[in-house]
UniProtKB/TrEMBL annotation:
This is ABC transporter ATP-binding protein. InterPro entries: AAA+_ATPase (IPR003593), ABC_transporter-like_ATP-bd (IPR003439), ABC_transporter-like_CS (IPR017871), ABC_transporter_ATP-binding (IPR050763), P-loop_NTPase (IPR027417). GO terms for molecular function: ATP binding. The keyword Cell membrane does not apply.
């Protein structure tokens, strides 16, 4: 057994109408890491989380929590796991304190006012403890959902689109909170549409497409594996088409003919850049600026989703 706290093996989910939401996903989640799962709507991210959290029944495969099958040892596994769902579902007339305390009791944890107080203070909710849920802003409700998920002291936390619909300032507060949770030893798995969230927060990133895990790696490794560098050459004078003498480099024309773009693998022994620059001189194509750009996770994500649409 590796250092995986959660091991997902061959997980499948097919619905009666024939739709396959998950197609044999294999994934090890390491203890103490932040793993971000990226993917478009309908890719299977929420289905995956809901199966691991016991809300949806898998068609095939298994999940192991610390080496134990999560169905055969369900009560233990469920106690280990907390979930912050995408939807904000709470009793509108309950107080924040009651909402969080009740969630603790659901998992058979004894009453512990000091623990609830600690969680509420950590989430900047202490001043709102007597407020009814209906009185809170969307961002505050999101914090209460996290408090509910933490009430039974899980060491594995799933966050399904945790910052959806919150403003930028609150999103950064959430990121800070997630970092603190990880520092406390909590393993965190989050789904997100925000590429910056994955780049900012995650130790590793997985990309789910059409129910399959199509990419997985640490941020730097994933970008090295799938990313490219782009050399942009700003010309002295615009041209209407790429000269045939540059065809072997596969350069593209951008910015209304002012810029030549050459994509290359920065890890390759021969990037082809010196030869390209010599050829520009031979063709008497003057240039005034050079700039390189490293593909970001967003570029990689867009290219993977584009492949999906083209398939």
């Amino acid at each position: 057994m590796s250092d995986a706290i959660v091991r997902i093996e061959g997980l499948r989910k097919a619905y009666a109408n024939g739709v396959e939401a998950l197609k044999g996903v294999d994934l090890d989640i390491r203890k103490g890491e932040i793993l971000a799962l990226l993917g478009p709507n309908g890719a299977g991210k929420t289905t995956l989380i809901n199966i691991v959290c016991g809300i949806v029944t898998a068609t095939g495969g298994q999940v192991l929590v610390d080496g134990k099958n999560w169905l055969q040892d369900f009560r233990s596994a469920r106690t280990r796991i907390g979930l912050v769902p995408q939807e904000l579902t709470t009793d509108a007339f309950e107080s924040v304190w009651a909402t969080v305390s009740f969630s603790r009791g659901l998992f058979g944890k004894p009453r512990d006012d000091a623990k609830v107080e600690e969680i509420l203070k950590r989430l900047t909710l202490w001043d709102k403890r007597k407020s009814e849920m209906r009185e809170l802003s969307g961002g505050m409700k999101r914090r209460v959902m996290i408090a509910k998920a933490l009430a039974h002291e899980p060491d594995i936390l799933f966050l399904d689109e945790p910052t959806a619909g919150v403003d930028v300032e609150l999103r950064r507060d959430m990121w800070e909170l997630v970092r603190k949770l990880r520092a406390d030893g909590t393993t965190i798995i989050l789904t997100t549409h925000y590429i910056e969230e994955a780049e900012e927060m995650a130790d590793r990133v997985g990309v789910i497409r059409k129910g399959e895990l199509v990419a997985l790696g640490d941020k730097k490794g994933l970008m090295a594996q799938l990313g490219q560098r782009t050399l942009k050459i700003t010309l002295d004078d615009p041209i209407s088409e790429v000269p045939s003498g540059l065809s072997e480099w596969g350069v593209a024309l951008e910015d209304e003919g002012h810029t030549l773009c050459y994509r290359f693998d920065s890890h390759a022994e021969q990037t082809g850049i010196p030869q390209l620059m010599r050829r520009l001189d031979e063709l008497h194509l003057g240039w005034k600026d050079l700039a390189t750009h490293q593909s970001s996770l967003e570029d990689i994500f867009v290219s993977l989703v584009h492949e999906e649409r083209a398939a």
